[in-house]
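re: that complex we talked abt at group meeting.

here r the seqs, copy pasted straight from the sheet so there may be weird spacing, ignore it
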Amino acid sequence: MSVTDSIASIGRSAIATVTGLGRAGLMLWGAIAKVPNVAKGTPLLIKQLYVIGVQSMVIILVSGLFIGMVLALQGYNILVGFGTEDSLGPMVALSLLRELGPVVTALLFAGRAGSALTAEIGLMKSTEQLSSLEMMAIDPLRQIIAPRFWAGVISLPLLALMFTAIGIYGGHIVGVEWKGIDSGSFWSILQASVEWRQDIVNCLIKSVVFAIVVTWIALYRGYHVIPNPEGISRATTQTVVQSSLAVLALDFLLTAMMFGR
Amino acid sequence: MSHKPMNDASKPLVEVNNLGFSRGKHVIYEDVSLSIPRGKVTAIMGPSGIGKTTLLKLIGGQLVPDAGWVKVDGVNVHQCNRTELYALRKRMSMLFQSGALFTDMNVFDNVAFALREHSGLPEPIIKRIVLMKLEAVGLRGAAQMMPSELSGGMQRRAALARAIALEPELVLYDEPFAGQDPISMGVLVKLIRDLSDALNLTSVVVSHDVQEVLGIADYVYVLADKRVIAHGTPAELRLADNPKLKQFIGGEPDGPVPFHFPAQDYQKEMLGERD
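got the structure back, here u go
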């Protein structure tokens, strides 16, 4: 390959990336920029909250419990060497609130709900359901994309809080029930260490950002899928890979902004 | 731009003029012109892959032509803004090749969908209209079934009931007979003709099922080589002496449209020689 070909190839990739970002932006704008029709939109939103949020709860709660337990066990083994095992509560809580809660929930959400969204919308496109909406003079961006987007944005922060809460409970099981840390000191030091603005609000901010990104990627990949089995398979994979990478990269940026000083 | 019907029965409902359309470097249409009269069944026929479905999408405003124009009831489809286009689409409907039923709704809700979105009618009235449409296609008894529980023919009929729910002026049928058994095909042929007559619909049927289409169409356009190669009544087309048309209507495997895809010399390839 000549130098000219290489430069042309880079140029084509850059144009494709910028075009993709533009199409994704236009899709999201078309879905959420208009004034919502509350009467028609609310039932659609509730249905999607159930599909995207409620049906993701099992994997989120089970993962949160075990991650909290593992975190507590590893933390206890380190802290006990310094005689500071009473700090296990804040260690588990702050790790979950600041990092693991929003990040792991977003990664699990991308795998569970994001891939399902892409596959569902991709299949709707390949079976001409989206075209049929268009021909019925119903905007698929408002009917299909908007309720799923808002359901993702609402669900993920709530799931992250559930993940964090049950993770802390898992830490309590290991630290207090198993390793014998005093329950009163576990909870009181935890309560004293966790700050509303610094920890809980930042946890929610991260979750909302991750929710927007993961849901947006999933919807875009489904809406612009190549409508055949291979295209849907590739789009689903792209959703999980791109969402996961975006979450991890954004987590670093957000952490640097929130805790970097 | 006005969307009011011109109410001139002598003027065609759909006019396609000097239409050109390409996908990338692949030219699909060059200079296609046709007109669809009101209240008639007009068929658009041609070999597979010629772009017949593309033509329906151009008429419905889902694709934009490179050249020429498409007018529906005097309105240039591709100069409409979104609101105007949606207003126009409320007066037309399309039966997709796959049926395109919403898989998360039962048959009743599929048919009721557009009525609930656009008509503003109370639910008891919607229920009666939906049952009337389902009765017309013989599926009133399947109202509570999900699309996945229906056979291919029943799905097509349910989609037809949905397509006529808002009583459109124009119905676009995309390969309505594809993949149907003889009984389902006979039912669909009868339904398309009877519904068009009963509701005074303007129907555009895209198909390559020659005998079925010639049996119900009032007028036929045949597309090949990126343009209209013949048009006329079914009787006129049967008598035409255009070799391509005769091959298509007669279903002959070889002729102006060759059986073999272009390739290098057979003997040379078998002997491992290169041109």
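couple things i noticed - The longest helix of chain A spans residues 88-126. The mean pLDDT of chain A is 93.
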